[in-house]
Amino acid sequence: MPLLACFFVSILFFFRVMQVQLEVQKALDDTGRKLAVCLPADDETFIDDAAGRVAAEILLKKELTGREEAEQYITGGIAGVSLTGSKFEEENVCLRANYRIRLPVSLIAVSDIKVVLKTECRKWTGFSVDGAEEGTDVWVYITETGTVYHKTKSCTHLALSIRAVNQEEVDQLRNESGERYSACLLCEESENIRGRVYITNLGNRYHMDLNCSGIKRTIMMVRLSEVEGRPVCSKCGMQESMGVS
Questions:
Q1: What range defines the domain where residue 168 resides?
Q2: Are residues 60 and 97 in the same domain?
Q3: What's the predicted TM-score (pTM) here?
Q4: CA 95 to CA 118: how far, in whole Å?
Q5: Pairwise CA distance, residues 28 & 31, whole Å
Q6: pLDDT, tens digit, for every residue of 66-108?
């Protein structure tokens, strides 16, 4: 019976450990985001690890205040959470929280277990209007399968205008460039019970499946320096040459 009781207590205690971990992780993430905004990111006013850790611990303890689970089960309470090993680099805030959880039953002289949580946030470096006008390293938009980058998320090559038409009529339809629609190679074998296909105003393929990756766009916002040699989208480039923002 004692062994059985210890087993059930351990199972229930596992969920307590997970609850405490979630609370500390959320407080750690919030602390990292606040420091990423507040700490300087330039070399001249760079903050060292010791000073940064003091500021982080103050914020973390403030975030954990009032969280009863953390106070009750962490060895030493909120004060038992240490940020030893945290790093404050030129562009990143890397926080490492160390604490110990008290076991409900001591096993072979082991009264608590060590837990380590981490979070990493990039420092906020601000936005330069001059830099954006000069096109130095502005934010642009790309897709997973695309070969170009887009200057605005509202570019018509990203915001597709999908419409359904009867498959018998697709041979008579043309896109905005006057091209005929041909079958998409990705979904041409899909079953089409209703006899409907899907087309876009700019594309030159018709799709049997509305969920085909050929008409879905997973859009990512990245720096211009990270597009790895992709040229600008023809639509965005044309607007730039005409002076349209």
A1: 161-216
A2: yes
A3: 0.46
A4: 6
A5: 5
A6: 887 788 888 888 888 999 888 887 778 899 999 988 776 665 6
